[in-house]
Amino acid sequence: MTLAHFPGRDPFRMAAWQAPRGMRGWLTDDSSLTARIRARCGRFSLEVVGQGKGCVLPDELAALGVQRHGALWQREVLLVADGEPVVFARSLVAATTIPAAWHLLHGLGGRPLAAVLFDDPRVCRSPLEAARLDARDFRWHRAARALGEPALPALWARRSAFRRHGAPLLVTEIFLPAIRNLNP
User: Fold this and answer.
1) Which of 49, 87, 115, 158 could form a disulfide with 76 if both were Cys (CB 3.0 to 4.6 A apart)?
2) What would the pLDDT profile of 6-42 be if each residue is shown by its tens digit?
3) Is 17 helix (H, G, I), strand (E, B) or coil?
4) CA 36 to CA 77: how far, in whole Å?
5) What pTM was computed for the model?
């Protein structure tokens, strides 16, 4: 049973060591996930699933340090290795911080967010948190819809908050079944 089953509980309070051995490296490596995937495949691409205002969960608001919903901007993408989607990523930021701290997000298009996060020395990252998400979690359903697979197994995920000029950006990365085709 995952913590996501209980309303008000944060599923990202698990230890990565609880994951299967082959997933632990993916969950705990705090370098760029995009770079790690690129190094393990012949052809990498990114597909923007959607961006704009969207639904935010209470644990995401808490991770962002936001007290109320307000205007939150989200970007959802699939990271694709050799033609197979391997990660569904969801980024959330308060819309009011985009013009000041995160203005680079508007011009990303099909480029990975890692280009902004890991190349800017003003960006600080919180520790990674791990979770096992299943059909009881909204994010699992977003990943299933993006993949076009309504019957996915439980999926491992990680998240962390990035801060630029004090403004948080929450990035959640959900590992899809095809991640097993890449060396951890």
Assistant:
1) 49
2) 344 667 766 677 888 889 999 999 899 999 999 999 9
3) helix
4) 17
5) 0.86
